[in-house]
Amino acid sequence: MKHLIIAISGVIILSFLFTCKKNSSGSKPAPLCTSCSVAVVAHKTDSTGLYYFLPTAFTPNGSGINNVYGLIYDSLNTKSSTLTIWNASGEGVYTGDITQSWDGNDLTGTKCPAGQYYVSMKLVTLKGQTITACTCVTILEYRGNCIYTGGITYYFADQLIPDSGFVSPTQEPLCP
Is it the case that residue 43 has pLDDT exceeding 90? Predict the structure, then answer.
């Protein structure tokens, strides 16, 4: 178990524990992350210009708001930095460099159901430093005219204000 404290603009947002495991079978790579938390993986802008923000949820519904999942970043080596995503069964549903975004479809183009997905992130800074993290993302769906969150606080891509690192309210209509 590892302990990770997440802070944006010097304020601790969430603190959580996560577990990583190695591939135990030769058939398919196991997800690096085996437990989920709704923590934000983020790094505020530092003296090198590096910052990144990885949302905890998205809504691939065609609304034009938070339809894709991807890293918001600056000052990273995009050719060496990757995101890999698995479903609860340990099957890979997405892999790509950080210039790409996941649209909520699996590797065959089939729409993935609402729920939590494991995310492994490997980032390489412009100075060659490697940053790795495990987290999860949740695909949320509309119920009627709003998004059901089950009372959990999620962080969406439209909430980040990159210049300040602060998180603003989402434009998504959330159910009460």
Answer: no
